[in-house]
TrEMBL record:
<dbReference type="InterPro" id="IPR002347">
    <property type="entry name" value="SDR_fam"/>
</dbReference>
<dbReference type="Pfam" id="PF13561">
    <property type="entry name" value="adh_short_C2"/>
</dbReference>
<dbReference type="GO" id="GO:0016616">
    <property type="term" value="F:oxidoreductase activity, acting on the CH-OH group of donors, NAD or NADP as acceptor"/>
</dbReference>
<dbReference type="InterPro" id="IPR023985">
    <property type="entry name" value="SDR_subfam_1"/>
</dbReference>
<comment type="similarity">
    <text>Belongs to the short-chain dehydrogenases/reductases (SDR) family.</text>
</comment>
<dbReference type="InterPro" id="IPR036291">
    <property type="entry name" value="NAD(P)-bd_dom_sf"/>
</dbReference>
<keyword id="KW-0560">Oxidoreductase</keyword>
<keyword id="KW-0520">NAD</keyword>
<protein>
    <submittedName>
        <fullName>Putative oxidoreductase</fullName>
    </submittedName>
</protein>
Amino acid sequence: MGRVEGKVALVTGAARGQGRSHAVRLAEEGADIIAVDICKDLDAIGYPMATPEDLEETANLVEKADRRVVAVQADVREAAQLRAAVEQGISELGKLDIVVAQAGVAGMKGEPAVQAWCDVIDTNLIGTMNTVQVALPHLAEGAAIVATGSTAALMDVSKVDVPGKDLGGVAYVFSKRALSQYIHTLACHLAPRGIRANAIHPTNCNTDMLQSEPMYRSFRPDLEHPTKEDATPAFYVMQAMPTPWVEPGDISNAVLFLASDEARYVTGMQMRVDAGGYLKWYDWHI
């Protein structure tokens, strides 16, 4: 028996990166998958989104794990699209037990700046809330919700050097912080129903979001067009352990634990998979 054998999991942002990794890892441990992704570029986000072919490849990988999959192109910013995707998945797979709200974008250096702010907030925060709230009517006792935050949400950003300089970047931090508060409150009030909700906070993760020019420019603002080679030494600053980033599979292992019955009494957790990044910002406290 797999660790999530017989369960059905909804994964947003499933076409590539962390989302694909989560979908495949859950499938390897016995879950059927509803895989959702927008598969369309956003004009104010400075790197390409996943493609329909990427989502198809995720579906192929789930099927190779001998699990069923319903793959749907849908925009998490639009609750109606997401609701239709969830209902389609449930009609084919029979139920819903696990929700992984993974879809997210980074708007660092995005232009137009106001649109970058809106795209990030609408995807990372509103998209997460849409994902959870269209799923809630279908969740029963024992269900698990996992949302992706960021170590950036836990950092002290009270001292802003130039207000308004990078609206898309600020939106990323704010959206992940607000998402964390949402999950905290949600977990408290779903606990009597036996439904758990947790957030995972990755540090730099080796995905297309990280490996992009806008992110390279955020870490190397001294260069006009920094490359991966230019940015990689700077990526180490985020972690206490000697690594520039973690891998999607490192996050998927945490998702699997929180989604499984091994974590049946774990709820309201702000779980860090950050190679000690948080430790560089805060002293010990309860």
